[in-house]
Amino acid sequence: MKSCWYVFWNVCLVFATFKTCSTLPESIETVYNSGPSEYRNIQAALKDLEDKLTAQFHFKVLELEEKYDKQMRKMKEAIVQHEIEIRRLKKVEELSKIEKEQAVKIQDDVEHLKLICNKWQTFFNESDSVSGQTDAVGSVIDHETPQRVRKDEQEQIYGDNRGKAKRLLLGTAAPTTESTVAFYVYLSHSETKIGPHHTLLFDYIETNVGNSYNKHTGAFIAPMRGVYLFSYTVFSERQGYGSFEIVVNSASRGSIFVENGGAQSVYTGSTGVAVLLLNQGDACTIRTHSTYASTGTIRSGKLMRTSFSGLIVGHMM
Question: What's the confidence (pLDDT) of residue 68?
Fold first, then answer.
């Protein structure tokens, strides 16, 4: 009985083994056949994932670009606003500077006006005093000898007051007499490379009563018609020579000649004197001859002065 069961179990084992071996090729084939499909599914899933990631990446990039563009626009707008503010501040600074300069100028003008007002006040005070004295003198004259009061005397009194007012306003000194005219000027340095028709500009003014000599033009302008006495002296250095004229309105009215052919440090000079009748406004100058070619150096220093002087000796109507 036991042996029968043993045989039965062996037969069952063999049958099961055979059955398993017969179905194995079918399972392998199923797995083999199903493999490419799964691979394709995986590939498709990966492709979808890649597309999604790419789309998300591009979207993120666009989002960041838009964000940074907005920030850049804001920065540019801020820079423009800062530049506008800087220009405004510079304009304010310039206006402030101009206002300060104008304030200083206004202050100077105010001080000047105060000075003028003070001078006017002084003038009025002096005029009141002179007017009182004139009235007192006039009453005495009217009481004693009315014929002695003349209109020209009154005009002289008031004319003096007007002249005083003008001097107070302009800050000029009181004149001496109307006919006083005199000047003395000389060169403060030597002049080289002189040629024909060269006007000497006597730049140092020692005396200029009447302010008729102009050192910038070298001309004496006659303030009135009259007889004038002029003197001019010219020194020349070694190997120098030339002819010098006293000229009135471009017309020669006298001349001197200077020549120095001596040794080194030896100087010679010449002096000319002229008495001329000048009309008011005539210009008198000293110049080299208009055609003669002068040469050398005109000497003027502490030991000798090349000079020009003149004065009125007679007033003529």
Answer: 84
Give exposure, 286-311, as e/b (b: 16+ Cβ within 10 Å): bbbbeeeebebbbbbeeeebbbbbbb
Write out pLDDT tens, residues 111-133.
778 777 877 777 777 666 555 55
The stretches in the chain having pLDDT less than 70 are 1-36, 126-178, 262-265
Task: Find all residues with CB under 8 Å of 44, minimum gap 6, and list them.
Answer: none
Distance between CA 262 and CA 268 in Å, rounded?
9
CA 199/CA 263 separation, integer angstroms: 28
Residue among 232, 228, 199 nearest 307 (CA):
232
Largest pairwise CA distance in the chain: 203
pLDDT for res 13: 53
